[in-house]
Structures are given as structure tokens and as C-alpha cells.
Design brief:
The chain is an alpha/beta fold. The protein has eight helices and eight strands, in the order ββαβααβαβαβαβαβα. It is 37% helix and 20% strand.
Length: 215
């Protein structure tokens, strides 16, 4: 751990892995999203391992959940995105893919939050845009976080890049981030590596490190 001007500056996963300053963020592991990923079972299992290790190590756990607004309330950017994803030319044909309370909107049962864990709904790709996540983390003194879930190329990369501008140290779990488009996900990993500021680790390393964080 480097120190300067009264600050401690973590540079490695091991240095950042302190429950007083790190949380786990599980991104959009919803029924309707998980079922779109070919290796979904592996990603669910990795997220469960990370969640269990975080609980054992005393780390705070947050979940995000994507929510689709009703078409009539969606607005210009939401309708434009929905038209692209649903391959539509007419905005009047747009349907709400993840309406609040629908079966596909729910988190996969294996990742049911505990009583001390929080779920934040969002309508954006970045988990920090328009949600209480930033305030919740800062109020707990957290300046780094581990992120896993789905999908790397759609939401996790934007979340990581946004959080870098907010001053966080993100740790991307390389084998616990699912993708609908593997080549695009590889480009996301490469972009983050090139940009710098974030760290990576695999599930086994983080599970071991988080479980022993209190000792």
C-alpha cells in the first residue's frame, strides 16, 4: 500500500480488498437477462461464490436490476434504444422488456438478496447513473468495489468507466462477467485495460481474498 499526503493508495486487489473500503456489486443478474447468455449457469455460480465470500468476509453487497419504463413514459432515448434492441422501425410497436414486477425483471433465485443487502433499480447502463449507488457507497466510506454479472459489453464496461470518473477503484471479475456478444466483451476488457484505473481478478482469487479479509 502506497501512502502520500495522509492518504493510503491501494494498487493491487489484495490491498483494495478491505471490507471497510470495498463492496461487491452484482450487476443485472435477472431472470430475463440470465436466460439470454449461453454460459449463464457458470456466471450464476461465480456470482453466488462471490456473494457468499463477501458475506463471510464482512463486505457490503449491492445488486442492480434493469427496469424498463412503460413505452408511453419511456422518453426519446429510451424509445430509440428499445427500437434498436427490438429491431423496430416504429416506436409505437416498442414493448417494455423488463417492466417492474414482471417475472423476467426479478433477480435469479440463486442470488436472492439477504436482509442486509440492497437492490437498486436503474433504466441506464451505468449503475451509477440515476441510482443511489454512489451516495450509498460513499456514505459507508467505500472507494472500491468488485463487479460481476451480465453483461460485460452492455452495462459493466459503462459502469466501470463512469465510476473511474467518480473516483472509485473498480475490480472486474473476469470469469464472472457474462456476455451476449463475446467479441464485444473482449473489446470491453481491452478498452478498460488500455484506459487504466481499474483492476481485474478471477473468481477463485477474489473468493479466497475476501473470505480472509477479516483475519
Amino acid at each position: 500500500m502506497k501512502s502520500a499526503f495522509g492518504l493510503s493508495i491501494p494498487q493491487t486487489v489484495e490491498e483494495a480488498c478491505d471490507p471497510a473500503r470495498m463492496a461487491l456489486v452484482i450487476y443485472d443478474m435477472q431472470v430475463g437477462i440470465v436466460r439470454q447468455i449461453q454460459d449463464a449457469d457458470r456466471i450464476v455460480d461465480a456470482c453466488v461464490q462471490l456473494r457468499n465470500a463477501a458475506r463471510e468476509g464482512g463486505f457490503r453487497v449491492f445488486y442492480t436490476r434493469h427496469m424498463s419504463l412503460p413505452a408511453a413514459a419511456a422518453g426519446v432515448s429510451q424509445l430509440r434504444t428499445a427500437m434498436q434492441w427490438q429491431h423496430l422501425d416504429d416506436p409505437m410497436q416498442v414493448r417494455s422488456s423488463f417492466p417492474q414486477g414482471s417475472p423476467q425483471y426479478q433477480l435469479t433465485p440463486e442470488l436472492t438478496p439477504g436482509a442486509d443487502e440492497m437492490v437498486f433499480d436503474k433504466i441506464t447502463m451505468s449503475a451509477f447513473a440515476g441510482t443511489p449507488l454512489d451516495i450509498a457507497l460513499r456514505d459507508c466510506g467505500i472507494d472500491s468495489y468488485v463487479i460481476a454479472g451480465i453483461a460485460m459489453e452492455v452495462g459493466i464496461e459503462p459502469t466501470v468507466r463512469h465510476s473511474l470518473d467518480l473516483g472509485y477503484l473498480p475490480v472486474v471479475v473476469t470469469d464472472a462477467c457474462g456476455a451476449g456478444h463475446p467479441a464485444a466483451a473482449q473489446r470491453s476488457h481491452a478498452t478498460l485495460e488500455f484506459a487504466g484505473g481499474s483492476l481485474t481478478a478471477d473468481t477463485a482469487t477474489l473468493v479466497k481474498t475476501m473470505r480472509h479479509a477479516r483475519s
